[in-house]
Amino acid sequence: MRLAFTGILLAAAMICGPTHAADIAAGKAKAELCVGCHGENGISQMENIPSLAAQPDMFIQWQLVFYRAGARKNEQMQPIVDQLNNEDIRNLGAYFAQLPPPKAPPDDKPDLSKKGAQAAVGGRCASCHLPDYAGTKAVARVAGQRQDYLVKALHDYKSGVRSGGGMAAMASVAYSLSEEEIEALAHYLAHL
Ligand code: HEC
Ligand code: HEC
């Protein structure tokens, strides 16, 4: 466990090291591998697949490192990360981070959003995800993310299915959320 984590830190240190600047054009070219699932311009049209547009650069890089190290597991992502070197990961982070964020659909259930907003205050979500929920550094953007994926992510933290280096914060947050709160939070955040 400790060894695996050290491996992740080493990989991350190599990625974050000051050796080269990220190349957005190269990231865009590499993102051809991602379009089929994560959508054109990083806006997903597929159930349970997250949009990547405007995610913080570091969040994207960390998640790719977690998948590659096997610390976060997903059958669809595994064969993809096996093809990525550290430079690809750096370039992909820079590319997706500078794309315009997803546009939220019109809110069809404002009452549910109100409940979600209250649950977000209770869970102090904005203290890490920022008041506009755009995320920062290793903290994900959740504003405008697909509602089905937000529900899935919160369930995965709550049940312990989702692991990695950054999940400790979310595991304790999600553990105490009720099913009703998860539905309301996901609806609220997806419509921001
Ligand atoms: C075959 C479909 C598929 C392809 C191709 C694919 N992904 Fe994914 N990706 C997924 C799925 C499904 C998830 C969600 C996994 C989960 O629920 O844990 C995901 C999750 C991610 C995440 C975590 C995002 C988050 O919000 O938690 C990142 C980052 C990511 N993919 C980047 C990429 C990049 C970069 C590429 C191309 C180099 C790529 N993916 C190609 C299916 C795919
Ligand atoms: C202490 C800081 C902190 C708090 C408080 C917090 N989060 Fe997070 N959140 C994070 C971090 C860090 C990540 C990325 C974790 C990882 O690497 O898996 C994250 C990830 C997520 C994700 C997954 C996003 C994705 O694209 O995969 C969701 C959904 C989420 N948070 C929702 C919430 C909600 C809703 C609340 C309030 C109830 C909340 N968070 C409170 C730090 C926090």
- Mean pLDDT across all residues, rounded? 91
Number of strands: 0
Q: Pairing-aware structural class of the strands and helices?
A: mainly alpha
Q: How big is the Rg?
A: 16 Å
CATH topology of the largest domain: Cytochrome Bc1 Complex, Chain D, domain 2
Please name the fourth-level CATH homologous superfamily of the largest domain: Cytochrome c-like domain
Q: Given the C-alpha coordinates, what overall shape results? A: globular
Largest sheet: none
The proportion of residues in beta strands is under 5%
N-C termini distance: 38 Å
Task: Explain what you see.
The structure is a single chain. The protein is mostly helical and 192 residues long. It has two domains: 2-97, Cytochrome c-like domain (Cytochrome Bc1 Complex, Chain D, domain 2, Orthogonal Bundle); 110-190, Cytochrome c-like domain (Cytochrome Bc1 Complex, Chain D, domain 2). 55% of the residues lie in helices and 0% in strands. It contains eleven helices and no strands. It has helices spanning 2-16, 24-30, 35-38, 57-68, 78-81, 86-97, 110-122, 126-129, 147-159, 167-175, 179-190. Helix 1 (2-16) packs across helix 4, helix 4 (57-68) runs antiparallel to helix 6 (86-97) and helix 7 crosses helix 11. The termini are far apart. 33% of the residues are buried.
